[in-house]
């Protein structure tokens, strides 16, 4: 029996992989998406669900603007609202020096032609967040951002991809990658697959594929932690962050609070596992208590951590391989890739089908680390397990 033949093999069926697969299928291509577990098992399904432009790296600004346009019509995109709610995102300054830092960023954004972030003084901050601690001196506001339900979003993209003709194989890791004719062969426990192109959307494990191609990048696995509290009376509408602390804080319609923002647990990607660290959760809780003293005794009812790949410059790898035709990368989203996923799929489909993207992606090229981190791997035929 002949092996299946696909136009594209997508390795990793998290949110970015599914977005890529969906957009490729809508271009008329035959696509299979492989996941070593199941869609949403890791960072895609367990993140804070932030849909934000606030605080983005300069290189991500064109992408985040384009992504937000899709989020505001996400039901047209995937047939589900994904739990998306438009709301303000606010980053609070607790001191004059933090206010100066935030305002310096606003000046830089104006130089680049962006005005989506605005300074609000202490009075306006308290009007929008009446419960905020009195020592806070102001904030940066980004109106029109929002939040969504991560797992619901993954499932919506999964259904849309299946409806578009994508084949999704769960519990099917990519074990090895090698050239095959004019394309590539991916070995899996379910047998070898042949494809004209391969898209590496393997998240924390994305570097295993890149390394096998001789273009390793310095990805650090991280277990980003979140926790949920008991239900409280409504008091917070925007999503809140802090200029001098790591924080992502919001209240759901049911009254529970989500507390996160980057504190890390123990990442064990070799065991396919992440563990929470109580000390990090404690720091997050103390941050909330400093900004909202009335919450000091609120009970936490559950917590978790999701595996994510972190890059030293805090931006992902997006684009074609620097060493192998027909290979494309989209991984290392550093804990803030959820909002970008709809546009990542568009970009990757454009690269494969048209040979270019209409958005600037030069900053995300994989070989930006080559000088310091390229290993001596000259053959693209390596064991990978991703």
Write up what this structure looks like.
The chain has 386 residues and is α+β, with helices and mostly antiparallel strands. Among the domains are: 5-47 and 151-218 and 313-377, 3-Layer(bba) Sandwich (FAD/NAD(P)-binding domain), CATH 3.50.50; 220-232 and 248-310, no CATH class. It has helices at residues 15-26, 43-46, 61-71, 74-78, 96-112, 122-128, 150-163, 206-212, 278-291, 341-354, 370-373, and strands at residues 5-11, 31-34, 50-51, 85-93, 118-121, 138-147, 167-169, 176-180, 183-187, 193-200, 220-229, 239-242, 248-251, 257-260, 266-268, 273-275, 300-310, 317-320, 327-331, 382-383. Helix 1 runs parallel beside helix 7 (150-163), helix 1 (15-26) packs across helix 10 (341-354) and helix 3 packs across helix 10 (341-354). The longest helix is centred in the first third of the chain and has 17 residues, at 96-112. 48% of the residues are buried. Residues 372-383 have low confidence and may be disordered.
Helix content: 25-40%
CATH H-level homologous superfamily name of one domain: FAD/NAD(P)-binding domain
Strand portion, in percent?
Answer: 25-35%
Under CATH at level 1, the class of one domain stands as Alpha Beta
* Secondary structure tally, helices: 11
Largest sheet: 9 strands, mixed
> What would you call the structural class?
alpha+beta
CATH architecture of one domain: 3-Layer(bba) Sandwich
- Average pLDDT works out at 91
Kindly, what is the distance between the CA atoms of the first and last residues, rounded to a whole number of angstroms? 26 Å
Q: Please tell me how large the radius of gyration is.
A: 21 Å
Q: Tally of extended strands?
A: 20
Q: The CATH topology of one domain is what?
A: FAD/NAD(P)-binding domain
Overall 3D geometry? globular
- The residue ranges in which pLDDT falls below 50 over 5 or more consecutive positions are 372-383
């Amino acid at each position: 029996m002949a092996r299946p033949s696909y136009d594209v093999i997508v390795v990793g069926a998290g949110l970015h992989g599914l977005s890529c697969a969906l957009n490729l299928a809508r271009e008329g291509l035959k696509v299979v998406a492989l996941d070593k577990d199941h869609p949403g098992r890791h960072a895609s399904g367990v993140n804070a669900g932030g849909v934000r432009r606030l605080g983005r790296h300069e290189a991500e600004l064109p992408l985040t603007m384009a992504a937000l346009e899709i989020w505001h019509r996400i039901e047209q995109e995937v047939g589900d609202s994904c739990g998306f709610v438009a709301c303000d995102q606010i980053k609070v300054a607790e001191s004059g020096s933090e206010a100066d830092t935030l305002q310096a960023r606003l000046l830089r954004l104006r130089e680049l032609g962006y005005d989506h972030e605005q300074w609000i003084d202490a009075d306006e901050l308290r009007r929008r967040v009446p419960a905020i601690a009195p020592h806070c001196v102001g904030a940066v506001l980004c109106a029109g951002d929002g939040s969504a339900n991560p797992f619901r979003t993954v499932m919506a993209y999964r259904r849309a991809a299946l409806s578009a003709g994508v084949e999704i194989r769960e519990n099917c890791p990519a074990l090895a990658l090698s050239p095959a004719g004019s394309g590539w062969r991916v070995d899996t426990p379910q047998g070898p697959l042949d494809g004209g192109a391969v898209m590496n959307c393997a998240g924390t494990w994305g570097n295993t594929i890149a390394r096998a191609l001789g273009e390793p990048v310095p990805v650090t696995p991280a277990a980003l932690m979140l926790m949920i509290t008991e239900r409280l009376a409504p008091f917070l509408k925007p999503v809140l962050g802090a200029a001098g602390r790591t924080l992502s804080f919001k209240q759901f319609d049911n009254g529970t609070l989500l507390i996160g923002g980057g504190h890390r647990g123990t990442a064990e990607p070799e065991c396919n596992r992440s563990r929470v660290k109580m000390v990090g959760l404690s720091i997050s809780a103390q941050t909330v208590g400093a900004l909202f003293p009335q919450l000091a005794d609120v009970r936490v009812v559950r917590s978790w951590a999701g595996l994510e790949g972190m890059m030293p410059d805090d931006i992902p790898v997006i684009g074609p391989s620097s060493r192998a035709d027909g290979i494309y990368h989209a991984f290392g989203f550093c804990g803030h890739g959820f909002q970008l996923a709809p546009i990542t799929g568009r970009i990757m489909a454009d690269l494969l089908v048209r040979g270019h993207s209409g958005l600037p992606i030069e900053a995300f090229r994989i070989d930006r680390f080559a000088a310091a981190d390229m290993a001596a791997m000259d053959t693209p035929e390596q064991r990978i397990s991703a």
